[in-house]
Specification:
Length: about 575
């Protein structure tokens, strides 16, 4: 009996010990839930976990050494997490966002390794670190206070952006908000870390879902250089005086680029050194040091030889109009967000003054007998400078008034900072095509898969009869404009229905009709436009006379606009001609 008692005693305590060990193991695998959460997805050891950091003012990592996993090893768990996300918080009543606290947690998680941080936000951050207040003020539009509304308002985001750049972390921001989200502040993180900003105002899944998916896929899958630094050197007699774009300038000649990809461009302003006679050729060397996605450290060096000339006329003969306008737009976008700026008026004034000064210098090269008062002189290489500078002043990024929201203006200023030359050319002067009168072969593909684009028409309502169907694009958006008396046969060929009467343009989609050659041509043109841009442009359909057609009409920059008191193209040319005849340094 004593032996049995001893056996029962040992068995009882052994059972208690095993129970507590098992309970403790469950506690490790099932941490409590809360609002600010972090997920771990190590597929071979743990299942998906949600861990709590209840203090959103003092962030720390619950598992500092076990939060990052290999996607290849944990793909199944990550995929399951993405599938479960829509249902995880579907019943929550909490509408506030603690984005700043989440960003701080992500920074702590990534600071030792760097990489790409993708942020998805749908509302103004109102609690926790970096909480923001709504500052949308129509009364400030057009005043000196306007620049403050377009730039970063919270110092913590500036500090976090600098820390991310130093830790080689790039922030890609996806903002889908129906109300004011302060893109000027949130977008600053993308700007200073060399990331991308994607803005979807009034996001609707049926309208913006495909655009979001394409842009997210492009953002994650494009060839990217990590931990990059760029240095530009000039030969004797020249120096780099300024850099423009989305990056952090660590020193006078070193650009910090946590991520570098082919979708972004940077502007460089070169000036001549004083009291130095340049050689017959100038040399520019650009060196980019980066790490590939496979972990290889590489350096790419471009050395360019540029002939010099003492003749200003030769300089005008070799200038690239699109590159010059692209650089001008980056300089203007940088000017309007400076603390000393007086709002978007500084950008508009810069475009006008630079164009006037260019024409004035070119005019000074001619003898007096060729400079008649009624003759406007401009170089052939800069034939589009006047119309494109006027178009940029009227664009949504720089135009006065409240027709464009503050968030959209802030978004466009960030986009301009990284725009390549080709996309910038479309943004400066949008391309409009008359779909109802496509030329022979226009819209067809050749054997190489290239689309024959139709000839663009001028941006003026005077050239648009009401029976037409038009397509306009500016590198960021595509708008289809249906005239009031557009023929039913054309509507049937493009939309597959006989009439658009009584239908809201916002609810219209552009279908692909296999049996309609016209439909296929229109889709070929649209896809060709999308193929040269780093964004996926939605096709917005508007009908003549609808309120929504205002966005289309605003792109007709050659017409006079009464609401913002802008000049028509002929009036602007007369204005430039008059001021280009004045002596220099008077404007």
């Amino acid at each position: 009996s004593l032996f049995l008692f001893f056996a029962y005693f040992v068995f009882f305590y052994l059972f208690i010990f095993i129970f507590f060990i098992f309970f403790f193991f469950l506690m490790i695998r099932r941490p409590p839930r809360s609002t600010l959460s972090s997920s771990s997805a190590a597929s071979d050891v743990y299942k998906r976990q949600v861990m709590v950091v209840s203090d959103i003012e003092d962030i720390f990592l619950p598992l500092p050494d076990d939060m990052l996993v290999s996607l290849q090893e944990s793909k199944a768990v990550v995929t399951q997490l993405l599938q479960d996300l829509p249902d995880m918080y579907s019943t929550t009543q909490v509408a506030e966002s603690c984005l700043g606290s989440a960003l701080e947690a992500a920074y702590q998680l990534m600071q030792h390794i760097g990489g790409k941080m993708s942020v998805f936000q749908s509302t103004l951050p109102g609690v926790g670190l970096g909480k923001l207040k709504s500052r949308e003020s129509p009364q400030a539009i057009g005043t000196d206070a306007e620049c403050k509304l377009l730039s970063c308002q919270e110092e913590s985001y500036r500090k976090l952006g600098a820390l991310c750049s130093r830790a080689q972390i790039c922030v890609d921001m996806f903002i889908a908000a129906s109300t004011f989200a302060d893109v000027g502040t949130l977008g600053f993180l993308s700007k200073i870390t060399g990331g991308s900003l994607y803005y979807y105002p009034g996001f609707q899944a049926n309208r913006d879902g495909i655009k979001f998916c394409h842009e997210l896929l492009r953002c994650l899958s494009r060839e990217t250089g990590f931990e990059a630094v760029m240095r530009i050197r000039m030969s004797k007699g020249f120096k780099v005086s300024a850099y423009y774009g989305n990056f952090l300038n660590r020193s006078s000649d070193l650009l910090a680029l946590p991520n570098c990809d082919a979708d972004k461009a940077y502007g460089v302003q070169i000036s001549m050194e004083e009291n130095v006679t340049p050689a017959a050729d100038a040399y520019m060397q650009i060196a980019l040091l980066y790490t590939t996605s496979g972990g290889e450290r590489r350096i790419r060096v471009h050395t360019i030889r540029i002939p010099t000339t003492p003749q200003v006329a030769d300089l005008f003969a070799s200038v690239d109009n699109d590159a010059m306008v692209c650089l001008m737009s980056k300089i203007a976008a940088d000017k309007v967000v400076q603390q000393s700026a007086r709002g978007l008026g500084d950008g508009r004034e810069f475009f006008e003054n630079r164009t006037v000064e260019t024409y004035r210098v070119y005019r000074s090269l001619f003898p007096p007998d060729q400079k008649s008062a009624d003759r406007l002189l401009f170089p052939k290489t800069l034939g589009n400078l006047a119309v494109e500078s006027m178009a940029l002043m009227k664009s949504s990024a720089f135009r006065p008034g409240t027709s464009t929201s503050l968030d959209m203006k802030a978004n466009l200023l960030v986009q301009i900072g990284s725009m390549p030359v080709r996309q910038s050319a479309s943004f400066a002067y949008p391309r409009m095509y008359a779909l109802h009168m496509l030329g022979e072969g226009a819209g067809d593909k050749n054997q190489a898969g290239q689309v024959a684009m139709p000839a663009p028409i001028r941006l003026s309502a005077e050239l648009m009869p009401p029976e037409g169907l038009y397509l306009i694009e500016n590198g960021l958006q595509i708008i289809m404009y249906v005239g009031k008396i557009c023929p039913p046969m054309l509507i049937q060929a493009v939309f597959g229905i006989n009439t658009l009467d009584g239908m809201d343009g916002n609810n219209l989609m552009l279908p692909l009709l296999p049996e309609s050659s016209m439909s296929q041509k229109v889709h070929n043109i649209v896809n060709s436009i999308r193929g040269v841009s780093n964004t996926y442009a939605n096709v917005t359909i508007v009908k003549e006379g609808e309120k929504e057609s205002a966005d289309f009409l605003a792109l007709l920059i050659e017409d006079k606009e009464q609401q913002v008191k802008s000049l028509s193209y002929p009036e602007y040319m007369c204005h430039l001609h008059r001021h280009s005849q004045a002596p220099g340094n008077q404007r």
